[in-house]
Specification:
The chain is an alpha/beta fold and about 350 residues long. It has two domains: about 140 residues, Carbamoyl-phosphate synthase small subunit, N-terminal domain (Glucose Oxidase, domain 1); about 200 residues, Rossmann fold (3-Layer(aba) Sandwich). Helices cover about 25% and strands about 30% of the residues. It is built from ten helices and 19 strands. The strands form three sheets. Strands 10-12-11-13-14-19-18-17-15-16 form a ten-stranded mixed beta sheet, sandwiched between helices. The longest helix is centred in the C-terminal third of the chain and has 16 residues. It is globular. The chain starts with a strand and ends with a helix. The relative contact order is 0.14. GO terms for molecular function: ATP binding; carbamoyl-phosphate synthase (glutamine-hydrolyzing) activity; glutaminase activity. Pfam families: CPSase_sm_chain, GATase.
């Protein structure tokens, strides 16, 4: 079926539909990963977004049972140059098109993804809609201009009820703002006793669990939309070691008095170099975020900048001057991407053990 992608700025791309036949609207962003489309599709941080893959061939190794990052995808749609209908991989179980049909997701293929990416890089991320080929383009543009997408993305993807992933080691409360399963896998590999709790859990409820540490997960949307979480973090600060990833990193910044801002087109992919300012080493990282901490605002907080992105020099990590708390903007659990930074989970274990021994 013929489809087209229409941007709020008026650009139109004609292509072929895959997955569900209905259209879909969302924020159009791009991802530079050559692989990892299954993890990307199931990453809750993409809630409300239509993702353009810059790599031209997508779907060539199919979909398997092991690489999901959540049970139900929150992504709005996918844009690809060429969709592979006949994947070749020993783990393949279904095709990308079949997954999209089963999950009622919309995709479009056969468009000039390079041109689309250049538009997003020059003008910034924008609203867009995948529609039928005969849709009135002017009407869709006006619709997009007048549409305000929901701001409750975290509420949409966070767990509604607490659950456990038992272990014999240190007890970690994972506050779920849209957590990837990769975080649970990394903690489980270190034998942590994990309790996953909702994004709106109060600090008092978390402390009742008597945790050895708090993990603040990744998640979608504007960090400033999570006022309750900031109060929770402020009450926990200094009482329990805290490790934040992506949205969790931004929330720690806001809770400590820093500011955040929206990047022009964000960081999304598995090849982003990050410099650790403390040991002067570079890690290649997996990233997916549209917001960042304002580095200038860190000067008026008790946070120290520990990492920066080498592509644009934006903030990628902080630690607290007084309390056992640190965070990074990128994804040390990878999934997909390089595992250069998963040592940070070991650092979190050490932080919890040291804090426990002192108290």
């Amino acid at each position: 079926m013929k489809k087209k992608l229409i941007l709020e700025s008026g650009e139109v791309f004609h292509g072929e539909s895959f997955g569900a036949e209905q259209g879909t609207a969302g924020e159009v962003v791009f991802n530079t990963g050559m692989t990892g489309y299954q993890e990307l599709i199931s990453d809750p941080s993409y809630c409300g977004q239509i993702v353009c893959m810059t790599y031209p061939l997508i779907g060539n190794y199919g979909i398997n049972r092991d690489d999901y990052e959540s049970i139900e995808p929150a992504i709005k749609g996918l844009i690809v140059k060429e969709l592979c209908d006949f994947p070749s991989n020993f783990r393949t179980q279904i095709t990308l098109d079949e997954l999209f049909k089963k999950k009622n997701l919309s995709g479009i293929s056969g468009i000039d993804t390079r041109r689309l990416t250049r538009i997003l890089r020059s003008k910034g991320v924008t609203k867009g809609k995948i529609v039928n080929a005969d849709a009135d383009e002017n009407a869709v543009v006006e619709e997009l201009k007048s549409t305000n997408f929901p701001t409750n993305q975290v509420e949409q993807v966070s767990t509604k009820t607490p659950y456990a992933s038992p272990g014999r080691g240190l007890k970690v409360v994972l506050v779920d703002f849209g957590s990837k399963l990769g975080i649970i896998r990394e903690l489980s590999q270190r034998n942590c006793d994990i309790i996953v709790m909702s994004h709106d859990t109060k600090a008092e409820e978390i402390l009742l669990m008597n945790p050895d540490g708090i993990m603040l997960s990744n998640g979608p949307g504007d960090p400033e939309d999570n006022a309750e979480a900031l109060v929770m973090i402020q009450k926990l600060m200094g009482k329990v070691p805290i490790f934040g990833i992506c949205l969790g990193h931004q929330l720690i910044g806001l809770a400590c008095g820093a500011k955040t801002y929206k990047l022009k087109f964000g960081h999304r992919g598995g090849n982003h170099p990050v410099l650790d300012l403390e040991n002067n080493k570079v890690a290649i990282t997996s990233q997916n975020h549209g917001y960042a901490i304002d580095q200038e605002s860190l000067k008026y907080t008790d946070l120290i900048e520990t990492h920066i992105a080498l592509n644009d020099r934006t903030n990628e990590g902080v630690k607290h001057k007084i309390h056992p708390c640190f965070s990074v903007q990128y994804h040390p659990e990878a999934s997909p991407g390089p595992e250069d930074a998963n040592y940070l989970f070991d650092d979190f274990i050490t932080l919890m053990e040291d804090f426990k021994n002192k108290n």
